[in-house]
Specification:
The complex is a heterodimer of chains A (115) and B (109).
Chain A: E1 5-7, E2 10-13, E3 19-24, E4 31-37, E5 44-50, E6 53-56, E7 65-68, E8 75-79, E9 88-95, E10 105-106, E11 110-114
Parallel strand pairs in A: 2-11
Antiparallel strand pairs in A: 1-3, 3-8, 4-5, 4-9, 5-6, 7-8, 9-10, 9-11
Chain B: E1 5-7, E2 10-14, E3 19-24, E4 31-37, E5 43-50, E6 55-58, E7 61-66, E8 71-76, E9 85-92, E10 98-99, E11 103-108
Parallel strand pairs in B: 2-11
Antiparallel strand pairs in B: 1-3, 3-8, 4-5, 4-9, 6-7, 7-8, 9-10, 9-11
Classes of the chains: A mainly beta (115), B mainly beta (109).
Amino acid sequence: EAGVVQSPRYKIIEKKQPVAFWCNPISGHNTLYWYRQNLGQGPELLIRYENEEAVDDSQLPKDRFSAERLKGVDSTLKIQPAELGDSAVYLCASSLDLGRNTEAFFGQGTRLTVV
Amino acid sequence: SQQGEEDPQALSIQEGENATMNCSYKTSINNLQWYRQNSGRGLVHLILIRSNEREKHSGRLRVTLDTSKKSSSLLITASRAADTASYFCATDSNTPLVFGKGTRLSVIA
């Protein structure tokens, strides 16, 4: 069974440019998470989806970040415009239910460098 | 915001020794999970302990949970060089999967 697939693995962009990340969760997983991880830190939740509904986006900087999960399957995370401080690894994870008492499966992440 | 806080931040041991990492958190939880992250890779789930459980084992891993102290510990016995990684605890309370900053474990062969 394929795991959580993220693309691209690496992205280098200039500041003020837009960037998008894509995530394909494990088939059948209704919960999808986007995290941002800075170097030497733990993952910080940006947004959590239950099917196609964003149920927790309190940490998403809405002035420049947006996300969608069409048909409750794949998801995209967009930054426009990117800032130097957005350089980080963006991780996608999925789980079978709310995540309570079940494990989450993570993709390999997208490493974003903003120059 | 991060609820869990791991201690120590970094740990270096010899192969064959045991490694103990601790996690403290602030609010009541439904469960607590431990994850491992190798350099440049995604996180891998290790073990989940429910709030009504006190101890759990999985292979060379032993996790304890003390809800009165709001703390958990992860013990890795007979460590191997391949155990070198960062270890994170993640709490499930009002928001599921809130991660701490992690403990960086180095196992020296």
